[in-house]
Design goal:
- Chains B, E: This is Sugar ABC transporter ATP-binding protein.
- The complex is a heteropentamer, with 1 copy of chain A, 2 copies of chain B and 2 copies of chain C.
- Chain A is α/β, with parallel strands linked by helices.
- Chain A has 10 helices and 12 strands.
- In chain A, the strands form 2 sheets. A 6-stranded parallel β-sheet of chain A has the order 2-1-3-4-5-11, sandwiched between helices.
- In chain A, strand 9, helix 8 and strand 10 form a beta-alpha-beta unit.
- The two termini of chain A are 32 Å apart.
- Chain B is of the alpha/beta class.
- Chain B folds into 2 domains: 193 residues, P-loop containing nucleotide triphosphate hydrolases (Rossmann fold, 3-Layer(aba) Sandwich), CATH 3.40.50.300; 51 residues, no CATH class.
- Chain B is built from 9 helices and 10 strands.
- Chain B has a 6-stranded mixed β-sheet with strand order 6-7-8-3-9-10, with helices on both faces. A 4-stranded antiparallel β-sheet of chain B has the order 2-1-4-5, covered by helices on one side.
- In chain B, helix 6 runs parallel beside helix 7.
- The radius of gyration of chain C is 20 Å and the shape is globular.
- A two-stranded antiparallel sheet of chain C has the order 1-2.
- Chain C has a domain of 209 residues.
- By secondary structure, chain C is mainly α.
- The chains are: A alpha/beta, B alpha/beta, C mainly alpha.
- Chains in contact: A-C, A-D, B-C, B-E, C-D, D-E.
- Chains C and D meet through helix 5, helix 10 and helix 12 of C and helix 6, helix 11 and helix 13 of D.
- The structure holds adenosine-5'-triphosphate (2 copies) and magnesium ion (2 copies).
- One magnesium ion binds next to helix 1 of chain E.
Chain lengths: 311, 268, 319, 319, 268
């Protein structure tokens, strides 16, 4: 009965990223003898669902709650209530706004992830004038904005800062469409972009499924050879796509690691009463099929070893 | 009881000229005329599909005719919906009854004219007086001598005749000017049918004119002061039931006889 | 002898109620923390927004319509009121009134399109759903609105009731259900609403202005969505442009679970509250049991069907 | 003189068709790339999955039901067939057959719950939606299934038709629409389906086995969802556990835009195809115009209402 | 024409004993008996709400009685749905007509028994023969002399009487064993009503027994071989229309007279 209870709240059920996070948490909980509760919003952006999950987990006796906030600002009041009751709250993957609203943050910097692939893409185009298509998440999502703006920044274009939720649209971006991070929708979006501007030579995708969809569209149009696709996440499947040459490069993040660290901190808190604090960067690594000069990157073998944070 | 007044001299209450109503290729009304006089019972008869229901729907605001004019006490009126007809004091029993099947008998009787509880707050909020509505409903339905076991039954659970009684009772209770009844006795038993005829007479004796559509010739001849014969979307003739035989009437109705073959006193 | 039964709520509410009680009994047996006044107050608080949206949804479904825009209107309302109060510096009460006014205006537009141009409610509200969503995003620039004046979260704060903290919004919710129940069952406009949903043509022929009834219903539903905005803002403490996306389906689910027919004219408003509670209890109880989140969805799917099936079978028995 | 009009499709299909043509004309004027056979083929290809789901949805809505589970069943089917073909190493055709069998089985379960226990379709399919979703996630561990055998993407590859590449799946789609149109209008079971949706009690009293018709409809809809899985897999080249989440609403939208009544018994299957195309053309055309995504949503909301309003007003004119 | 055979000696085709049907507190059938003999026209009469429609719904499988037994040619049959009744060759015109309003006249006539095109493929796919259905529909409706202008009109656009003709024509066309008609002439005009009576006679002359529910006493006395009087959910008496007056019949029906007050030869 005095098993420490740790709650994990992800944005959604379906994204492989969060599924891996759950796996990491479950393994760590098993190893440490903790009980893991999980919950998720109904869909990305479902703040009310996450608030409800926090309340229910407190009612179930959780002393530590790990959360990937769907809405960095909106979740803050609910987190405050939880912390007032002595619950330690750790944000995973993305920060709350303000970041101090939680006890600790184990995350990667999505803006930085964007910057890395932006830099890579700039080098990969080797001075050719860029005609960019961006396959974004959906309107109003902070992660979508951070990755998008980071990518443009890295590419050397004018872009909003990391705190903005608005997508910048410099002239080089000839087509912007929402993919909802979904392969089929990414494909449709890319097809329509190609129809609009057949000369697109650089595609930024919010994640690898969307990138895979873009590749399929390009391939059907016979244009897969001359277009550079870059994405974010670095999931195992995504790295395989990089290895296969479908995606040029991706920024790899480590959900398993974040979650495992979170559970460990939760168990420690239950045993010793000591909270963790501050920001722990779980790191971003650029994984590229072909390295380019001036940008640090790892090859796909390394990427496959590390994907989702296995090691 | 039956005042045998020559109603053809009474003033005209409701009048229509040249009504036309087309549905796609079907012409339901083809220039129909109509005339209802004060204090009379006017029967409207005709074959199936002759346009009787279409005629009274136009008179009660349920449909808007494509052409033609409707006059009330000599004044042209333009009815856009049944609400306008109700304002004119016209109450109608429609052939397909127009009841809300899931609602109770009492509720259906008072639909659109619920009894409101006294008191300022109740009047403001339009709180309905369920008890009084139930009592009055029982009274009205007893008038028709129809044996309904529970007045809070939903109308959809009633038998065909019982349902018809609900519609008839409603129209009779609320008319202030004209009552129109489209085949009110079609589904009724002998006893209940007679009660409805009795009710119609009572309404007429209150001074309100009644339009009665019926296929039941004995009923028509028993009760009508004048008979409007509808045929192929037009008024074929207006007959005087005291001067014409049932057989001749049916002949005119079915087109076997032309109205001008009848003696002049049969027409009115 | 059989007389006491007529004081019971109608069968269509009894079924959902039994399902709710069965679910409560199940979770009370399976977990330690479920059966407490405080946990129940928590569940009430969690369903308060959907529960309020579902009032408007019930009214519309009773007229044989459907509203897909309710969640988005709620989001729009909460963005309008929070932005006016923070950035424009309006008095919180004024800002809140304008927010409710905005959702009411949208409801009125829905109603006008349904009554004047006679468009199917599904299409109309699908359109306004998209429009309201886009306006919300554009107006808020997709930024969550924070630092609200205290008056705007007042409704989310608890008051003590019999030793249990209960959010004020929950009391608002219960009060509105009682009021709407009274209006639907004891006033003439309420009965007209049922008549319109049950048989529009008959209602029209008896001289009810069906158009006016529908217009009122849609506008009033908009007002309820505005009140839901108030509760949502009070509960989360922010104006959230991403809110409301799952609430459409949730509110319709509450209505249907509560025994109201999607074909209109048949249903009881209290059933909707019970329907909303069923969903809330499932989510709360399953989390307390430690069921992992994917399996929660699985179990919820099974339980929803079981709840209504039990209701259906019990009614068959009763016949 | 008026005789030629009787060879026209019924008014309820003409309206959506005019809306579609108006949208096409608008985009043709506003953009350079819209009006080409190739772009039209592209749009067809993009609506092919929703279009196929919408066939099943139309059948169910014609019986006065609704299916919320269609998208999730499609996702389930595509995961089942791709996992069997890759991990279990089954022959692709066998795997595909089992995938379609799985969605058909789910459809049958929907049908059994609707007919045997007489649950409202909304509740039943809400339940199976959750169940199918959870099973999909659990079975696939939420991982996309890749490296499919070529036979599984064959339907996504183009064939040349009058100099334009057209995906094979589009031909399947058109063929199925033609077949279902024929079945609905020219065969006895098709007419029974309309009768059941138009007046279930009358259909029952005339000796139609309404239960059997409904059971068939739900099972057959499941089969169509399975075929949609095939097309989805062929189009994207992967088995995607995240698929199908927006397709529920999209398919219902296509049906309603196509002029079919949510109350059952009235509607034309070809209208559904037009409805699906309207949505696809909006999305394609607005992207070609370079409208940004929030504004696309806004414009889509307005256009959906306008399309149906134009239809409605033109019919009023005609009367 | 009217074969005045003493049908009371004919074998019993359809029989029911002690049928009970309750709806909540309302008892629609309260132990009703019933007996239909070969080749006869049996009229069923009774007040509104007496349980006539409930009785024939039980006989046609539309409702399942709570108690009681139904026998066909002396054998107990258990009908779970109208399909079972159709298998037994029982065809019924229901009081509320049971038509699909959005479908055409021809489609409604053939609902559930569409004409299938010849040829193996057509038979397999059950492709309907629209042309032949339309032709036959025109013929059937002409039999009833009802003037319908377009046979591809949706039934919801028909007048009340025209709609009733559709239902009557359907039952008459397809019966193989027993025809049941619940108030088939209620909405019909004089001419059309007579055509239906004529049709009923023709069906009887083909050897099929007919059950006719009607409130129209002249019709009943014109056509019935025996009269089943339903009262308060029970069979009150079976009368011989040749031996009893209309007035006495109505008295029995309304409860003003007990059946045993009638002379013995009036009963059968
Ligand atoms: N909404 C409609 N659409 C198309 N045709 C219609 C419509 N309403 C009526 N009709 C047609 O108009 C004609 C007249 O119908 P109406 O109901 O007025 O006849 P009626 O005299 O009342 O007949 P009945 O005695 O059978 O009730 C009929 O042929 C009918 O088919
Ligand atoms: N589904 C039902 N639910 C409740 N009560 C019903 C239902 N069906 C019939 N009844 C009741 O049963 C009684 C008998 O009805 P039934 O329809 O058999 O009468 P009927 O003799 O056909 O009358 P009518 O001559 O008016 O058609 C009525 O009091 C009616 O209210
Ligand atoms: Mg009529
Ligand atoms: Mg009856």
């Amino acid at each position: 009965a005095d098993q420490p209870i740790v709650g994990l709240i992800t944005k959604t059920e379906t994204n492989p990223f969060f599924v891996k996070m759950k796996e990491g948490a479950a393994e760590a909980a098993k190893a440490k003898g903790a009980k893991l509760l999980t919950a998720a919003g109904k869909q990305d952006g479902d703040n009310a669902g996450q608030v409800t999950a926090i309340e229910n987990m407190i009612a179930a006796g959780a002393k530590t709650i790990l959360i990937t906030p769907s809405d960095a600002k909106a979740i803050v009041p609910a987190i405050k209530k939880a912390r007032d009751k002595g619950v330690m709250v750790i944000a995973l993957d993305s920060p709350t706004d303000p970041q101090e609203a939680v006890d600790a943050l184990f995350a990667t910097d999505n803006y930085k992830a964007g910057v890395l692939i932006g830099q890579y893409a700039k080098a990969a185009l080797a001075g050719k004038p860029a005609k960019i298509a961006t396959l974004d998440l959906f309107p109003g999502h902070p992660v979508g904005a951070q990755r998008h703006n980071g990518f443009l920044k890295g590419f050397g274009l004018a872009a909003n800062a990391a705190t903005s939720n608005e997508l910048s649209k410099p002239a080089e971006v000839v087509c912007m469409a929402d993919s909802y991070g979904d392969q089929a929708k990414g494909q449709t979006a890319m097809e329509n972009c190609l129809q609009k501007n057949p000369d697109i030579n650089l595609v930024y995708a919010i994640n690898e499924p969307a990138a895979a969809g873009a590749f399929k569209a390009l391939k059907s149009a016979g244009k897969d050879k001359n277009v550079v696709i870059v994405a974010v996440d670095g999931g195992c499947q995504g790295v395989k796509d990089v290895a296969a040459g479908k995606i040029a490069a991706t920024s790899q993040q480590y959900p398993l690691k974040m979650a495992a660290m979170g559970v460990e901190a939760g168990v420690a808190y239950a045993k010793t009463g000591k909270k963790v604090a501050g920001y722990t960067d779980t790191g971003v690594t650029l994984i590229a099929g072909k390295p380019v000069a001036g940008v640090d990157s790892k090859d796909t073998t390394t990427g496959l070893n590390l994907c989702w944070g296995k090691k | 009881m039956h005042a045998a007044a020559p109603t053809s001299s009474n003033p005209v209450v409701l009048q229509a000229t040249g009504l036309v109503k087309r549905y796609g290729q079907v012409t339901a009304l083809d220039g129909a005329d109509f005339e209802l006089r004060a204090g009379e019972i006017l029967a409207v008869i005709g074959d199936n599909g002759a346009g009787k229901s279409s005629l009274i729907k136009a008179l009660s605001g349920a449909t808007i005719p494509d052409q033609g004019e409707i006059l009330m006490h000599g004044q042209a009126i333009h009815m856009k919906s049944p609400i306008d007809a109700r304002r004119q004091g016209i109450e109608t029993v429609y052939q397909d009854l127009a009841v809300a099947p899931a609602m109770t008998i009492a509720e259906n009787l008072f639909l659109g004219r619920e009894l409101i509880k006294p008191g300022f707050v109740s009047q403001m909020l339009r709180v309905i007086d369920k008890k009084r509505m139930l009592e009055e409903a029982i009274e009205r339905m007893n008038d028709l001598k129809v044996g309904i076991r529970s007045m809070t039954q939903a109308v959809e659970t009633l038998s065909g005749g019982q349902r018809q009684c609900v519609a008839v009772a409603r129209a009779a209770a609320f008319a202030r000017n004209v009552v129109i009844m489209d085949e009110p006795t079609a589904a009724l038993g002998v006893k209940e049918g007679n009660m409805v005829l009795e009710l119609i007479r009572r309404v007429r004796d209150k001074g309100l004119p009644v339009i009665l559509i019926s296929h039941n010739m004995p009923h028509v001849f028993e009760i009508a002061d004048r008979i409007h014969v509808q045929r192929l979307g037009k008024r074929a003739a207006v007959l005087n039931p005291k001067m014409v035989s049932m057989a001749d009437t049916v002949s005119v109705m079915t087109g076997a006889m032309r109205p001008d073959q009848l003696p002049a006193e049969a027409l009115c | 002898m059989k007389d006491w039964t007529k004081h019971l709520p109608p069968m269509s509410t009894l079924g959902p109620l039994l399902a709710l009680l069965a679910a409560c009994a199940f979770f009370a047996l399976k977990t330690d923390n479920f059966l407490s006044a405080q946990n129940f107050s928590l569940v009430m608080q969690q369903v308060m927004v959907v529960g309020l949206l579902a009032i408007g949804q019930t009214l519309i479904i009773l007229t044989a319509g459907i509203d897909l825009s309710c969640g988005m209107l709620m989001a729009l309302g909460s963005i309008v009121m929070t932005k006016l109060a923070t950035e424009m510096g309006l008095h919180p009460l004024v800002a809140m009134a304008i927010g409710v006014g905005a959702t009411t205006a949208f409801g009125l537009v829905n109603g006008l399109l349904v009554t004047r141009i006679k468009l199917p409610p599904f299409i109309v509200t699908l359109g306004t759903m998209n429009i309201a969503f886009a306006i919300t995003q554009i107006y808020s620039e997709s930024q969550t609105v924070t630092d609200l004046p205290e008056a705007m979260t007042w409704l989310g704060d608890p008051v003590m009731l019999l030793g249990t903290p209960v959010a004020r919004g929950v009391l608002v919710l219960l009060g509105l259900y009682a009021a709407v129940w009274f209006a639907l069952t004891h006033t003439a406009p309420g009965r007209h609403l049922y008549a319109v949903g049950n048989n529009t043509e008959a209602a029209r022929l008896t001289g009810i202005s069906t158009q006016r009834v529908l217009l009122w219903v849609y506008a009033l539903a908009g007002t309820f969505y505005g009140i839901a905005s108030l509760l949502s803002v009070a509960r989360t403490g922010v104006g959230d442009p991403q809110a409301g996306q799952t609430e459409n389906l949730d509110s319709i689910t509450a209505v249907v679970l509560g025994g109201t027919s999607l074909f209109g004219g048949r249903g009881v408003i209290i059933g909707t509250l019970i329907g909303a509670l069923i969903v809330g209890v499932f989510r709360n109880g399953l989390t307390l049991m430690g069921v992992s989140s994917v399996y929660q969805i699985l179990v919820t799917g099974v339980l929803v069907i079981l709840a209504v099936a039990a209701d259906q079978l019990s009614q068959k028995q009763a016949r």
